[in-house]
Amino acid sequence: MGACHWCEYNELCGGSRARARALTSDYMAAEPHCVLGEEVMNRHLRDLAEKEKAMS
After folding, report:
1. What is the torsional sign of CA 19, 24, 25, 26?
2. Rounded to 5°, angle at Cα 12 from 16 and 39
3. d(CA 49, CA 53)
4. DSSP tag of 32
């Protein structure tokens, strides 16, 4: 599962399963040409870390 799963813009673009499959051989990979992918995933991971820290 790539960054597309967590992206708040996923419902707008849906990620390109065809491009992911063609370029990575994995149709479930993140959209390879997405300019937001890495930023969105990093934001999600930071949010998770903050939630875990708050719970401990």
Report:
1. negative
2. 75
3. 6
4. T
**Amino acid at residue number 38:** E
Which one-letter amino acid corresponds to residue 56? S
Residue boundaries of the structural domains of the chain: 3-55
Return the residue matching tokens 């719970």: 55
What local confidence, expressed as pLDDT, does residue 53 receive? 92
What span, in angstroms and rounded, lies between the C-alpha atoms of 38 and 56? Answer: 27
| CA atoms within 13 Å, Cβ hemisphere of 5 | 7
Band (pLDDT 50/70/90 cuts) for residue 11 is confident
Over residues 13-29, mean pLDDT:
82
- Residue 21 is encoded by which pair of tokens? 């499959």
